[in-house]
Amino acid sequence: MNRVDRLTLHLSNLLVAGTGLVYAVMRYGMKPVDEWAVVNHPWQPHLLHLHVLSAPLLVFACGLIWHRHVLNKLRRGEQVGRRSGPGLLVALVPMVVAGYLIQITVDTGWRQAWVVLHLVASTAWIVVFAAHLVRPFRSWRQRRAVRGGTVLGSPPVDHVDLDSAPGTRECRPGGVSGGPLGQANSVSR
């Protein structure tokens, strides 16, 4: 997954989830000031429009990621991956389908059912997407520590063992190990 794909996915997710959460708070968590008001907040219709208009960008980003990230892993036969990936697919399909059905359903009962499904699937999407980002965030913190930077206010790392275990990138302060030719591979500041 390249930087543009990641940026598209994260920005579209932030836009759609953000507008959806704020709209839900306005719709279900606020009371109108005027008893004759049609909406609970003056910005409510605008947020709904922004949410509906930005949702196709998220669907496009998910299709892009499916094509460039998921299918490549499946074609190579990779079994190792994050367990949250399939959870994202399970949450995405009902979230998108219910989101579109809310807009076209006329019957009140069915419309309410689609709203409930959309809210549940959207909540699952947000939680699983956040969980899916935990491992890359930890990896980013380790790479940053290896480069000598501080991570979120932590003290700088003096020594980092780059070869603590074969095939891993585990970082431990103060570690020294032998490299492929027996030389020390510790990075010091």
Question: What secondary-structure arrangement, pairings included, does this model have?
Answer:
Blueprint: H1 3-29, H2 44-76, H3 84-104, H4 108-132, H5 134-146, E1 159-161, E2 186-188
Antiparallel strand pairs: 1-2
What would you call the structural class? mainly alpha
Report Rg. 23 Å
What is the number of beta strands?
A: 2
The side-by-side strand order for the widest beta sheet comes to 1-2
Major sheet summary line = 2 strands, antiparallel
Order of helices and strands: HHHHHEE
Oligomeric assembly: single chain
Tell me the span between the first and last alpha carbons. 32 Å
Strand content: under 5%
Which range best describes the helical content: under 10%, 10-25%, 25-40%, 40-55%, 55-70% or over 70%?
55-70%
What is the averaged pLDDT score? 80
Q: Please report the number of helical segments.
A: 5
Q: Poorly predicted ranges (pLDDT <50, ≥5 residues)? A: 159-189
**How would the global form be characterised?**
globular
Characterize this entry briefly.
The protein is mainly alpha-helical and 189 residues long. 63% of the residues lie in helices and 3% in strands.
Keywords for this entry:
189 residues; mainly alpha; two-stranded antiparallel ribbon; 63% helix
Give an account of the 3D structure.
With 189 residues, this protein is mainly alpha-helical. It is 63% helix and 3% strand. The protein has a two-stranded antiparallel sheet. Helix 3 (84-104) runs antiparallel to helix 4 (108-132). The two termini are 32 Å apart.
